[in-house]
Amino acid sequence: MKKLRNYHTGLIFLIWFVALVPTILFRAGTIIFVSPAHHGRLVTMQAPIILILVATYIIIELTTKKNHLKQLAPIALILIIPLISTILSGNNRLALAFILALSFINLDLKKLMRFDLILRFIFIPTVIALTLLGLVENRLIGRSGGAAYRYALGFSHPNTLGMYVLSLCLGYLYIKYDSLKKRNYFVVMILGCIMFYYTRSNTSFILIGLSILLVLVFKRWNILIKSSQTAKVILLSFMPFMALLSFLSAIFYNPGTSFWRLMNRLTTGRTYFNKLFLDNYGVSLFGQQVHLVSGGRAETYGIGALILDNAYMSLAINFGIVSLVLLILASVLLIRRSLIFEDYGLLVAILIFSILGLMETGWFDIRVNWTLLSVASLFEKD
Fold it and tell me: Can you list the pairs that 257-266 forms with residues at least 24 positions away whose Cβ atoms lie under 8 Å?
């Protein structure tokens, strides 16, 4: 039995290694050890390899634990939705998130996150080190208004590096939550400050600070929060409110008023783009193809950017409103489960990632928002 458990854990670790490390190096990071054509093939091969490994994992689970068939049956039905979305949108990013989120029945999330932190602490500095050695391009991006340049340090964009550092910090706080000491908070603050010094990624920097604040709040007032119905309602409605806020800002955005001009500046143009994409494409049911032009590509080719960075709007327009509702429902249920089992480290991470969704699509990228890995726990019998 112990040997079987080790095999089970080892396969999960292998799947996560294949999902995370090539993404850090070749997608989020811009390392190219081979020709661009072969690099593209390497990136394309990642999804099929993950699917083969996940299928192997599920087959082993079904053959060794017969009762898992009842748990996997509704999961299989749910997976039909992101598969349809992949076909209609031409993007497999959401399908990969759903597959990994729903496949790991009886996952020990803390054990996986310890492995995740090792990978991030190794490969993120690897990309940065290769950049500082001059072996990888260090993209410089200026902010409007004449602010200092932002350094991507080998990643596709400074905000991408910011998201991965934020994800690392939240994982660290989650693992250490029950035994957090001053030095642990200091480590997170140092990581956040170093990241901000180079990237000027405001969103990630602010959210790292807010995550520390939320941890302190939950540690000090956890009993009051658990017994307060008002607190429970606020926490359970937090993510739906983030989605509603995204839609309302897109619907009512009016560049002719000083308020909305200020909101657009604070979101660095995201409010304008939310409105633009909503007007041009509308909300889809299961997904549709959307023409996007990243900031890096726009700068390279001298064309106008078309960016849909708000995760809630991106899901509703590009991947379908059904997928958005499913992810919000799953996250709300995870918040409820976290409150019941007093898993406040996970709760803090879910709340922070839900705020990140206002500014970045990393909320539904499982390599960034690792809290989605615990979705399969909703199908387990307590």
Answer: none
For 16-34, the pLDDT digits (tens) are 999 999 888 876 655 555 4
What residue has token string 């200091």? 186
Tell me whether residue 88 is in a domain: no
Domain span holding position 327: 228-382
Of 161, 194, 222, the one marking the end of a domain is 222
328 has pLDDT over 90:
yes
Confidence check: pLDDT of 331 > 90: yes
Number of domains in the chain: 2
Within a domain: 24: no
Asked whether residue 381 falls in the same domain as residue 232, the answer is: yes
Per-residue pLDDT tens for 135-155?
887 887 776 555 568 888 888
The DSSP-derived string for 322-359 is HHHHHHHHHHHHHHHHHHHTT-HHHHHHHHHHHHHTTT
For the entire predicted model, the pTM comes to 0.91
Distance CA 154, CA 161 (A): 9
